[in-house]
Amino acid sequence: MTTTTAAGAGPLVIAGVALPSRLLLGSGGYPSLDHLARALAASGTGVVTVALRRVEHAPGGLYDVVARAGVRVLPNTAGCFTAREAVETARLGREALGTDWVKLEVIGDERTLLPDAVELLRAAEQLVGEGFTVLPYTTADPVLARRLEAAGCAAVMPLGAPIGSGLGILDPHAVAMVREAVDVPVILDAGIGTASDAARAMELGCDGVLASSAVARAHDPAAMAGALALGVAAGRRAHQAGRMPARAAARASSAMAGRPGGSPA
Amino acid sequence: MTTTTAAGAGPLVIAGVALPSRLLLGSGGYPSLDHLARALAASGTGVVTVALRRVEHAPGGLYDVVARAGVRVLPNTAGCFTAREAVETARLGREALGTDWVKLEVIGDERTLLPDAVELLRAAEQLVGEGFTVLPYTTADPVLARRLEAAGCAAVMPLGAPIGSGLGILDPHAVAMVREAVDVPVILDAGIGTASDAARAMELGCDGVLASSAVARAHDPAAMAGALALGVAAGRRAHQAGRMPARAAARASSAMAGRPGGSPA
Amino acid sequence: MTTTTAAGAGPLVIAGVALPSRLLLGSGGYPSLDHLARALAASGTGVVTVALRRVEHAPGGLYDVVARAGVRVLPNTAGCFTAREAVETARLGREALGTDWVKLEVIGDERTLLPDAVELLRAAEQLVGEGFTVLPYTTADPVLARRLEAAGCAAVMPLGAPIGSGLGILDPHAVAMVREAVDVPVILDAGIGTASDAARAMELGCDGVLASSAVARAHDPAAMAGALALGVAAGRRAHQAGRMPARAAARASSAMAGRPGGSPA
Amino acid sequence: MTTTTAAGAGPLVIAGVALPSRLLLGSGGYPSLDHLARALAASGTGVVTVALRRVEHAPGGLYDVVARAGVRVLPNTAGCFTAREAVETARLGREALGTDWVKLEVIGDERTLLPDAVELLRAAEQLVGEGFTVLPYTTADPVLARRLEAAGCAAVMPLGAPIGSGLGILDPHAVAMVREAVDVPVILDAGIGTASDAARAMELGCDGVLASSAVARAHDPAAMAGALALGVAAGRRAHQAGRMPARAAARASSAMAGRPGGSPA
Amino acid sequence: MRATVNGAERSLPPGACVVDVLRACGIGEDERALAVAVDGEVVPRTAWGGTRVPDGARVEVVRPAAGG
Amino acid sequence: MRATVNGAERSLPPGACVVDVLRACGIGEDERALAVAVDGEVVPRTAWGGTRVPDGARVEVVRPAAGG
Amino acid sequence: MRATVNGAERSLPPGACVVDVLRACGIGEDERALAVAVDGEVVPRTAWGGTRVPDGARVEVVRPAAGG
Amino acid sequence: MRATVNGAERSLPPGACVVDVLRACGIGEDERALAVAVDGEVVPRTAWGGTRVPDGARVEVVRPAAGG
Predict the structure, then answer these.
(1) Going from the N-terminus, what domains does chain B have, and what CATH number goes with each?
(2) D118 CA to chain A: closest CA distance, Å?
(3) Smallest CA–CA separation between D194 and chain F, in Å?
(4) CA–CA distance from A231 to each of A180, A208, D148 (Å)?
(5) Is the ipTM of this complex over 0.85?
(6) Domains plus CATH for chain H?
(7) Do B264 and G65 touch (CB under 8 A)?
(8) Per-10-residue mean pLDDT for chain B, 265 residues long?
(9) Torsion over CA: D80, D86, D88, D91 (sign)
């Protein structure tokens, strides 16, 4: 396989930190911690998200698995409905894990798990003010993305489809608009179901992809982790290569002129 | 008919020949032969298609480029409208290139460049009878694919979208039905525009992908060749990994239970 | 509501017969004959398809319902796998129903129920030669459509999606190419699931729509029959009205200039 | 909050006012006022939106056309970027047109014309407090829609695609989630390009559709207005009829049993 | 004499015509929208009375059924 | 005295009311569907005759325009 | 004295510090990746030994869990 | 004598073989990846020297060209 070293071929950098891969993984939903460990290894990822839960609900081994994998832990605020809850959870994550990075989730309801724009922005402003490196999970809304960037977020993480749905990128146009709206890295979060979804996200100009259920709930999570890593690389390189323009009409790739049996040239 | 060895793991085998890659390339439409040479190298492909044209219309250097690349040459019958024309062109290709493999194209009109089912099947029967290894470019029609297989074709090459359109796979359902209909390898041909299209083809169960304009007309053909190779690998591995089921409703990947500040367990 | 009387606003004419509606219905799959009768009335259709079956399998009341509805009966050759079977069934239909119209179906397998191009064309040629008015159910393949037209078919009936799937029009591009390929009427057959599908078919330039399962298996068949009739009318009129061009970028429908509070003009 | 009377049967009711049609029109972008007048008549609509502009930018005849059409005028706040601007514009609209209804638009930037969630909500709260009947143009975000409803909005108007794009409904899943999230009427606004888009919006459960560029920029605006009215009616009826379930596999609508020439029953 | 009527074997009186087959099946010859084929050839209604069914013939008697 | 009317500066007679501004702009006060705001506050039509425009005021005079 | 620890009421000895709460819950204070908040304020690990838990306090003891 | 070579008429010496046609076209007979058909039948390279081109024949001389 070839090595590209051209401009734009560098690593994903968030808040000044260069990451070893443009694929980020979640840690939830795996059949076992062993599956998680193997998926982390197969993916080559440098970042894994975790939730914060009361100790009775958080079996001890997860941290060891993640620590052994040598990846950066990214605590999330999953399950928070208000800015206040999210801020408190972020602070707990910082204390527990010794990182000021936080994947900020503030959801509007338990059914759709979609972000609440108002509370999200409020929480982002608060956490940036407290020195956090904030990566907000957001709707694929360029205007909100620009507000989050203006609030000091280190990246934005628009959703492709509802969390855990595996529906892919329901509105590619919106994701492309988010990409155009901000200068910080754009990480596609939620919705990825398979490798072509990850490739598509990168082709839309995203700087990275976070996958969770797509890996954890695949028949073979480690194999899917590898597949997504390839998909991210494929989409990234295709984006850089500059795709051919699509056109409605056919266009021959073999010339018609000079066919044997045809008329003279 | 081919025999697949280990459960989906091995290389693509056509007519008993194991190929080094599941990506096949065309040779048409490149800005220069040098671009072609670099794309072949970057792709890792083992097969490149060529047309047969009268010498006045066929500048000499192409064969040298392809020969130096060390890849198998697959002559096509592009531009043929009848079984008779296609058979004559196939014979010329066999003589010129010393191979009995042929990518069989019999098109119905110059505007859509879509296959003519009736003439295609007729040509396939004739060429199989003459000892050719026939890889027919066909509509994504499972019934026609089964007829082509029954006629002795070594693979079938359903189209994803019109030649040179770059529209991707317009009817994934049809391609999946073709895959279920036959035992011979299925190579997605025509329509691929970018890496995610190639990944998608493989996720639908295709055994390989032939790309032509997607590479030749990319801004950076060699980079796109590499991107497609990654996309094919990504889709292949994802297919084998067994993707998560898609679902309309969201499903949390972090448990709701045990959130700090919540009610007791 | 307005009345259009402009060119192109006339009725659907097949083989010289003007039909009262561009919506055609099937008769299969209804909860009861009474549901069928009410759906026929609600649809305003002028054509209903029937199969031919051995008397033990064909409860007597169907013909009465159809005859009372005052619509033209269009016998089909559903379930035939070969040209020979289809021709025999067509002849039985002509004798039983006193019409030389036939909806010609020759399928390739029982699983996909997709047409077999080769046998279909053979049967069409034979039946045209025997004086039938042939309406073939075909893949959305412009080359095959042109062959069927050349064989003397009175219309072509490309499929939108597999029979009974309700998936809509999986490859609109292919249907549009069929429309451009022939001069005879194009009736979208199979795949229609709801009213917007019917409208879309007409917007692609189709001259009519045949719906079967969409009506019969709706919760309220008569209401859905009415909905499809409206959808066909809507799509037809939209096609004639000439839709706005789609564009990727937004474009204000209220002028920005002259806003209160803005700068001077 | 509105009360829907009989199960889905009656007219669209907003803030207690029953409207004669579920199609609402814009007044911008027409080739002439005469085209607008004819489109209003052809559509059967009961509501037309207008902008408020300085008199030098607002040729006098528009109001007369709208008044003669006998439709309710719905002033918008198009072009406003902040809650303050939108509130001032809404007040001017109330004074000029003697209505406390307002289509509330607060956009985030001039390029995408997408709503700014934060300012939109702020403006909605303010205007509801001042006694306005507020119909906010919003992203297809169920969480924001629920907040707008909680703020007292009389309806929500999610966008299908960017204003003036004619791209249809880019994320039908999101629109369906909006419909499930609120009790007030949902009017699909922006993105409609043709009749099938309007039908689709209604099939997703929307209570109405607002079309502007789709009519104004059609080749024949009046014909397209009629087409959209039919499309809205078609989609509405299909939604009420309860569509057949879609399924991947084919399913015969003519029984296989009892075919002539087959085996005994 | 025997014939296969709609896939099932039946014994018929020697010299039976199409109309006899119908009666043997309990089908009135006046019933509308019927069609009959003997050995793959359609026998028009007007010929039902006069067309002998050969021994061993394959007879199909059909009518319209629900279909798409 | 001066005011900014629809973004453009104008000189007005001292003590000018809203209705004077309209006249100065060539707009009949009976024209339908007009609205006026002075310094961001809407002045109802009934008050046009009696509302003085302060020196340096920002006046907006609007009416319906084509919009979506 | 009482406190609500992870949502459940517990009785604690008077003057209990955070570290005592952990012990009462059977959690070793050396365990990695723990965090504690008392009445919504995080108590850093270094202060576990010296921070009294007020009567009626709400204490949260969390650690990383599987999440997306 | 005359032949149509790649669609263009040419005059050839009487008794010309395939190899003579190639030379007349300025094509070296050693060039790789060539194929020749005379009146629709491929003439193998080994027979180029010994195969006469009939008067009025249609000759095709092809090689690989860029194609998809």
Answers:
(1) 22-240 (3.20.20.70)
(2) 6
(3) 16
(4) 22, 11, 39
(5) yes
(6) 2-62 (3.10.20.30)
(7) no
(8) 47 96 96 96 97 90 93 96 96 96 96 96 98 98 98 98 95 96 97 98 98 97 98 98 93 89 61
(9) positive
